[in-house]
Amino acid sequence: MKELRTQVAIIGAGPAGLLLGHILHLQGIDNIVLERRDRAYVEARVRAGVIEYGIAKFLEENGVGERMLRQGLRHDGVELRFDRTSYRIALTELNGGKPITVYGQQEVVKDLIGLRVGFEAPLMFETEVTKLDGLTSDAPFIEADTPEGKVRISCDYIAGCDGTFGPASKAIPAHLKKQFDRIYPFSWLGIIAEAAPSTEELIYCRHERGFALYSMRSPSVSRLYLGVPNDEKLEDWTDEQIWDELDVRLATEEIPHITRGPILEKGITTMRSIVIEPMRYGRLFLAGDAAHIVPPTGAKGMNLAIGDVRELSRALIAKFKKNEDALLDSYSDTCLERVWRAEEFSTYMTQMLHPNPTDDFENGVQLARLRQAVKSPGATETLARNYVDLNSL
User: Fold this and answer.
1) Which of 125, 235, 285, 297 could link 349 by a cystine bridge, Cβ 3.0 to 4.6 Å?
2) pTM value?
3) Could you tell me which residues come within 8 angstroms of residue 12 by beta carbon, excluding any fewer than 6 positions away?
4) Rounded to 10 degrees, what is the CA torsion of 363, 369, 375, 379?
5) In the predicted model, what is the mean pLDDT of residues 227-232?
6) Are 257 and 218 in contact (CB under 8 A)?
7) CATH number of 34's domain
8) Is 149 part of any domain?
């Protein structure tokens, strides 16, 4: 077995793991990033697309914003649509001039991989972590299978940025870990289409037939979603049926048909929420989806993960540069306060926009919340502030 030594071993080459590794590298702190998938898969993995104002600034400050600034789409508002009426939430106007940026998560990953490869910093793809041990000692280590054989990586700290089903969160003993779950009674059928967006801003739509979301990834690529039951099968939907249903839910008198084009990708994702407490066990720290999942209705997934990295990078830098433990000791509590705020906002948006096929009382409450969100200045401002910059608070 090959022996390696580093200061921080990072499991997962998503935006959280790669960004943490990048920041630590800039500070002269040795780290290795391990990823079980190959590079092509990671760079093509489509996830979130909305970046909060403060998170975009954090990326810029750490040298990751050049292509985002050039190719990302600035959005100054979003649209809520219900009762076949559209209401614009003026995000920038309600947030002191702060916009959101639409830039795909896979593009952030490509940027970070490019930087890491350029620095010749260790990045090991197709590497399956098989063991985490010594987590409560001063000598934790990881064992992993790589294309070249087995390796053992000794380190000072481990960052688990490997998602919900990765080995990091499983390494916390069950009697010390609490996991809070919620599975929603609906899923999203999502597509990526080679079609110029029919709108300049995102549209969140509550229609009696179900939820719909119109978003975009570039001036020529659209990202759209339909709310469907959890037992829905992708093979039951032809491309034409998907477009027809999007037309029914999203069309208005002004725009009776949305722009169509070849569907490049499609899939169905169950809506769920997960929070794991604590986000630290000894020398192991969880970040991103390894510690929490939010339904994408609130556009918080990647932002929440990068918020974790902001706290963890500060804590590790303070430890290695000044031998200070305070930020490491407070990491879990600091992050969880923000995580639960994001869960609350994401739950609010999710419950408000998905009609209930069997509960008219719930539907009446949803419509009342929507009307308050667009007609009460205080409620509108709160929604806008949470959407634009929750992870900077």
Assistant:
1) 297
2) 0.95
3) 33, 34, 35, 160, 161, 162, 163, 166, 168, 288, 290
4) -170
5) 95
6) no
7) 3.50.50.60
8) yes
- The tens digit of pLDDT for each residue in 285-304 reads 999 999 999 999 999 999 99
Mean pLDDT, rounded, for 143-162: 97
Do the Cβ atoms of 90 and 81 come closer than 8 Å?
A: no
pLDDT(47) > 80: no
Structural domain contains residue 236: no
Q: Which residues are catalytic?
A: 75, 204, 296, 300, 387
Interval 121-146 mean pLDDT:
97
Gap between the Cα atoms of 344 and 88, Å rounded: 22
Average confidence score pLDDT of the chain: 95
Domain membership of residue 26 (yes or no) is yes
3-state secondary structure the chain: CEEEECCEEEECCCHHHHHHHHHHHHCCCCEEEECCCCHHHHHHCCCCCEECHHHHHHHHHCCCCHHHHHHCEEECCEEEEECCEEEEECCCHHHCCCCEEECCHHHHHHHHHHHHHHHCCCEECCCEEEEEECCCCCCCEEEEEECCEEEEEECCEEEECCCCCCHHHHCCCHHHCEEEEEEEEEEEEEEEECCCCCCCCCEEEEECCEEEEEEEEECCEEEEEEEECCCCCHHHCCHHHHHHHHHHHHCCCCCCCCCCCCEEEEEEEEEEEEEEECCEECCEEECHHHCEECCHHHCCHHHHHHHHHHHHHHHHHHHHHHCCCHHHHHHHHHHHHHHHHHHHHHHHHHHHHCCCCCCHHHHHHHHHHHHHHHHCHHHHHHHHHHHHHHHHC
**In the chain, how many domains are there?**
1
Instruction: Tell me the per-residue pLDDT of 73-119, one tens digit each, with 9 for 90 and over.
Output: 999 999 999 988 899 999 999 999 999 999 989 999 999 999 999 99
Note down the domain range covering 11: 2-54+103-181+272-350
Q: Is residue 241 in some structural domain?
A: no
Q: Is 84 left (phi over 0), alpha (psi -120 to 50) or beta?
A: left
Banded model confidence at residue 393, pLDDT cuts 50, 70, 90: low
* Bridge partners of residue 100, in order along the sequence: 75
Pick from 199, 207, 215: which is nearest to 299 by CA? Answer: 215
